[in-house]
Amino acid sequence: MANAADHRYWATVWRRLKADRKAIACLVMLVSLILAVVLGPALWSIDPEAQFLNQIASPPIGSRTAIVVDADELWTGPASNVRDDGQSPGRLSLVEANTEFVRLAWQQDARASGYQLYRWSDGMNAASLGMPIAVLDAEDSWYEDRLNLRPQPYEYTLLSVDELGTELKRQQIRVLPVLAMSEFDAELAKLAEGETTIELPAHPLGTDHLGRDMLSRLLTGGQVSLFIGIFAPLVYMLFGLAYGATSALIGGRVDAIMMSVVDFVIALPFLLFMILFRVALGTEPGESGITALIIALIALGWPSPARLVRGEILRLREMPYIEAARLMGAGQRYLIARHLIPNVMGSVLVSFTFAIPSAIFTEAFLSFIGMGVVPPAPSWGAMCNDGISRLLTNPHMMLFPALAISITVLLFNLLGDALRDAMAIRRGAE
Questions:
Q1: Is the sign of the CA dihedral 13, 17, 20, 23 positive or negative?
Q2: In whole angstroms, what is the distance from residue 357 CA to residue 411 CA?
Q3: Cβ contact 274:301 at 8 Å
């Protein structure tokens, strides 16, 4: 009879969950998220540690073609000090232009005692000459610009000045650098070697402050965050289940002593013990404390499920069907296996779904303050820590990992609410 009632109960729970569109949507999204995190790093081929130094802190961008140039040695100038653009001899002229360097040359002005070079780009005041990038001597007739170049139009202005700084002559040239990557950067980013043209991969979520792909780091970091968020609650929920059930079934003085231990552990400060575990495990400053974090979550997280299970079992022991089973000769093991544990699992399952987001948030917070996962190992909390200092200039570095944490926590909380509502029918029926 009891088994038939249990089957009817779980069948009713499943029917109610299937009828709840919000619960089904949350479940589908959670499964998709977990699959993306588990399989994503294998499907998204970009190495999370590969650095694209020509795309540092780049917003989301598609794939592009770039030329590979030798940018290891500084330019020593043209073979002759006279360069022109083919239209007006003696003018400021372009020798070569790409995003690694822009090389300019001009004919020396006999009247000038020096030169001033400015670079203007879109977004600057149209009436200004732009950003001053060089003050040159009268003997100079060339300049190589390597200052934060992007594949966008620039206008260079060269002023010939006398000893007092008075402008004698002004020359201007408009330049559009082509996208390029140095041989060293191409090797660092683990792209094809020995090629003159390469295809830069797309970065759907942009790159971070070191030029690393945000999507690959988000997927890899999700493995760490979800592993901690699921593994630690699973272990301490199982331990709490065994501890609480044992305490309730034994009862008496042993129960009082065991509950005193629970009250003592609940009063312990988590952050302090996290630090103590790091010290005990020999975790040095700057090293990831994943092991210490998991141990701290397990060691201090089990009292709540233990109290929940103890209360449920004490309530179930007084139910009429338990008394009837005893009168029919059922032993303690049979009651535990067939009646008590199955009826407690509903509450434990709901509690587990709420414990997961709490553990994920704890990992994110500790990684954010540098006590959990630390760079270069990625996690969602560590990525938020990297992005907070660049929130105003590069908001995508903070936005995407924060969204990943928020969406994951929200989905688990909504699923827990749906499970709690679906499983509430038992108490109503009883």
A1: positive
A2: 9
A3: no
Say which DSSP state 80 is in.
S
CB 157 within 8 A of CB 172: yes
Whole-angstrom distance, CA of residue 278 vs CA of residue 258: 27
Name the token pair of 218. Answer: 């988000």
Q: Tokens in use for 322?
A: 């338990």
pLDDT for the residue 424: 65
> What pLDDT digit, counting tens, does each position of 143-200 carry?
999 988 888 899 999 999 998 888 999 999 999 999 998 888 888 777 766 678 888 8
Q: In one letter, which amino acid is 366?
A: L
DSSP 207: B
φ, ψ for residue 98 (rounded to 5)? -150, 180
Q: What is the pLDDT of residues 14-45, one digit of tens each?
A: 777 777 788 788 888 989 999 999 998 888 88
Please list the residues that pair with 65 across neighbouring strands: 199
Cα distances from 262 to residues 259, 301, 309, 398, in angstroms, run: 5, 10, 12, 38
Residue 182 and residue 53: Cα distance in Å, rounded? 9
Q: What are phi and psi of 367, to 5 degrees?
A: -70, -35
Whether the pLDDT of residue 116 is over 50: the answer is yes
C-alpha 278/C-alpha 287 separation (Å) is 10
CA-nearest of 254, 206, 235, 261 to 387 is: 206
Confidence check: pLDDT of 7 > 50: yes
